[in-house]
Amino acid sequence: MTTLAETAPGTLQVTDRKSARAFVDTHIVPYADAYDRQGRVPEELLERMTAAGLWAPFLPRDTGGGEMDGGMDLVTLGEVHEEVGRGCSSVRSLLTVHTMVSWAVQRWGSPAQREQWVPALGRGDVLAAFCLSEPGAGSDASGIASNVVEKNGGWVLNGVKKWITNGQRADLFLVFARTATSIGAFLVPRDSPGVEVTPIEDMLGTRASMIAEISFRDVALGPDALLGPSGFTAGMVLTGTLDLGRYSVATGSVGIIQAALEACAAYASRRTVGGSLLKDLPLIQAKLSDMVTDARAARLLVAEAGRLKDAGEASTIMATWVAKYFASTAAARHASEAVQIHGANGCGHDYPVARLYRDAKVMEIIEGSNEIQRVTIASQAEREII
Ligand SMILES: Cc1cc2nc3c(=O)[nH]c(=O)nc-3n(C[C@H](O)[C@H](O)[C@H](O)COP(=O)(O)OP(=O)(O)OC[C@H]3O[C@@H](n4cnc5c(N)ncnc54)[C@H](O)[C@@H]3O)c2cc1C
Asked: What's the pLDDT tens digit per position in 85-98?
């Protein structure tokens, strides 16, 4: 059996925050602005991520000799995604959607589905995308129009999915579609006849995340395409995968705050205005201290959500909403301040803060927009308090 940890000799393995930081500083930070301008993450980095074991380290690993261990815990996974998000939100976005699909297959897949997909997803030989949103349905997933009908013991899928992260590159799509009775989640290989991928270019943020619109025209799927027992999948797969995706976006938002802080600390230590270094001006110090405080607070909220996930506590859902809401709004606020601290330099190409500013805005929209987070947090709080 192939070992998930198998790598090119000498490649740094990402196993925790420290190794993730080293990988990100070497292979992502110096190139993130170029990815942003080119509108894609190059294959070379995707391969390096495969070699480093970055794609789905939480999956059980074959330790050799057929013994399986449990893979990376979710607190550590969150720290790794924070580090990747510090380097480049587009790369973190690719990891997020791959994580969501890999986890769903591992959690709800049949033995045959797991055998077919999990090792390849774990290694990163197969990259996955998560297909829920449509031209007419985003926040309200119950409004999706894509549908499947049963035919000859299998399924026929029709519909259009929009804003699909890594849709341009992914090999496997997890597609949510209406069945006769509910909504189901279907595993659709990219090379299935009837699948058409149309790149969406020039997004505001996460510009290198290779977003696409994907249309499915009379795509014939086998009976094994449905993930989980019929009728059961909609609620569980959707809630579970979105929760994990939200957790990853929360961690990535912490990474954006940290990146903004590091960029501003460096700039403020060099730039003089009226004979003073920026770092010595009280108004600039106030902005920097708010960044430090919110980075720490957001990191703690994320860690708490991760700890509850590892403990199997249902309260992780609420903790993740709170963490994502706090971290994404703080990221948007501080990335904006980071541009402000850089002045005109913040508006040009020589510093990363303009990219952070655009990427941070996206964090307030994806995996549950700010408004949806607030509605959900308030209604859950009402249940808990009243
Ligand atoms: C960069 C990027 C990557 C993405 N990647 C993926 C992906 O990989 N897979 C995928 O399936 N989707 C993806 N999406 C889509 C994303 O999930 C949706 O954009 C998001 O769910 C919001 O849906 P919408 O854009 O249709 O906005 P709408 O649902 O139309 O909402 C419009 C506005 O109304 C607000 N609103 C909605 N309901 C309420 C309410 N009840 N009360 C108050 N305000 C409300 C929203 O917060 C928003 O501000 C991506 C989007 C972006 C921008």
From this structure: 999 999 999 999 99
